[in-house]
Amino acid sequence: MLSRTSIVNQFKADTLIISSVIEIGDSTYVHGFSRALAVHREADTFFGNEGNYLSFKAFTISVPIVPIEEVISMQTTNLNPAIKVNNIDINGISASSVIHIGNSSHISMEARVKHIRQLLRND
């Protein structure tokens, strides 16, 4: 893997949550993964047996990864041995996100969210 020096003069992130990463520099593997179960109810009720991800198909089905079969020819010339960033200002980083300044060989990101709305009946 090509390695270069990463230089960041100033970095500000207000919020970093839920399996998120700030990476300054080179990395070989980046794998971000996040699961969220969001239940919106009109009535405040908790049954005590909720939150089992395996009971929802959205969390159990596999994500198809289609292989790249076309030939890609690329020639890169890095005239500067450094990646230079002056100023980064981010409001929020969430749900398996990566802010990466540098080189990566392999990146895999996955975020799964199941939204459920439970409304009261109008009887």
Which helices and strands appear, and what pairs or packs with what?
Layout: E1 5-16, E2 21-24, E3 27-41, H1 57-60, E4 82-93, E5 98-101, E6 104-118
Parallel strand pairs: 1-4, 2-5, 3-6
Helical content (DSSP H or I, runs of 4+): under 10%
Mean pLDDT: 84
What overall form do the CA principal axes indicate?
elongated
Percent strand equals over 45%
Number of helices: 1
Q: How many strand elements?
A: 6
Please give the oligomerization state of what you see: single chain
Please tell me the total number of domains: 1
Q: Rg from C-alpha positions?
A: 21 Å
- Could you give a short account of the major beta sheet? 2 strands, parallel
**Which segments are poorly predicted (pLDDT under 50) over 5 or more consecutive residues?**
none
The structure class reads: mainly beta
Give the termini distance in whole angstroms.
64 Å
Strand order in the sheet with the most strands:
1-4
The ordered string of helix (H) and strand (E) elements is EEEHEEE
Task: Give a description of the structure.
The chain is mostly beta strands and 123 residues long. The chain has one domain (5-118). 3% of the residues lie in helices and 50% in strands. The protein contains 1 helix and 6 strands, in the order βββαβββ. The protein has one helix at 57-60; strands at 5-16, 21-24, 27-41, 82-93, 98-101, 104-118. Strands 1-4 form a two-stranded parallel sheet. Strands 2-5 form a two-stranded parallel sheet. The chain starts with a strand and ends in a 5-residue tail after the last strand.
